[in-house]
Write a structure and sequence with these properties.
It is a single chain. By secondary structure, this protein is mostly beta strands. The chain has one domain: ph1033 like domains (ph1033 like fold). About 15% of the residues lie in helices and about 60% in strands. It contains 2 helices and 7 strands; from the N terminus they run E-E-E-H-E-H-E-E-E. It has helices spanning about 15-20, 35-40; strands at about 5, 10, 15, 25, 50-60, 60-80, 85-100. A 5-stranded mixed β-sheet has the order 1-5-6-7-4, sandwiched between helices. The chain has a two-stranded antiparallel sheet with strand order 2-3.
Length: about 100
């Protein structure tokens, strides 16, 4: 079992709700633009966890916000219109109110 983090902001557009409703986690970049992301996603296995996350500043500290937690059910990449290349998962928890402050 492994845990991976994924962002849900596509150039200022929040796509987390789309991830949640479609049961996916996606890479919004092409394989040519971000080949290392595709290398990482090929390592993801069924039963691994995905954390939907974002970062922001609060009182001069970097804050990690966990927006969703999901478990991978199918690790085969598929195209989803408007989202890019995606893997399927079951979202176990989805909300934007989990905050961890990093020192």
């Amino acid at each position: 079992m492994a845990i991976y983090g994924i962002g849900c902001d596509y150039d200022g557009k929040y796509v987390g709700n789309d991830f949640y409703t479609k049961g996916v986690a996606c890479i919004g970049y092409s394989p040519e633009d971000k080949p290392y992301l595709y290398g990482i996603i090929k390592e993801v296995g069924i039963g691994d966890f995905i954390i939907m996350k974002s970062f922001f500043q609060r009182r001069k500290k970097q804050v990690l916000r966990i927006k969703g937690i999901g478990i991978i059910t199918n690790n085969a990449l598929k195209r989803v219109k408007g989202l890019g290349h995606c893997i399927q998962l079951k979202w176990l928890k989805y909300a934007a109110n989990y905050i961890l402050e990093l020192e």
